[in-house]
Write a structure and sequence with these properties.
Length: 104
């Protein structure tokens, strides 16, 4: 952004990214909430979504780890929800034991 210090420009773009990510997460959850009929059987789906938004130069691996942490927070809140990663989440241990993922 011209005339705005880089640190302030990142804050604005991060907020815009979070707003856009929220809109996408809400659309995904709404699409999954619709009942699906497969071979005369009605199937209902839901999801938990972890969201991480990085600024300029954010590493993909870091974003994936942050989204994973946010995902566990979303799962802890219940079905059909999304959570944005926040730095304070790093210390919180909500990780499931390896191989404990389930499909319901």
């Amino acid at each position: 952004m011209p005339g705005v210090p880089a640190s302030r420009a990142n804050v604005g773009s991060r907020a815009a990214g979070e707003t856009e990510a929220s809109a996408v997460a809400e659309r995904v959850l709404a699409a999954l909430a619709m009942p699906y009929v497969v071979e005369a059987v009605t199937i209902s789906l839901s999801a938990s979504i972890g969201v991480a938004v990085g600024g300029a130069g954010a590493a993909a691996g870091d974003l994936l780890r942050e989204a994973d942490v946010a995902l566990y927070h979303a799962k802890a809140r219940g079905r059909a929800t999304y959570v944005h990663f926040e730095p304070g989440m790093r210390g919180a241990s909500l990780a499931e034991p390896a191989g404990n993922g389930t499909i319901r």
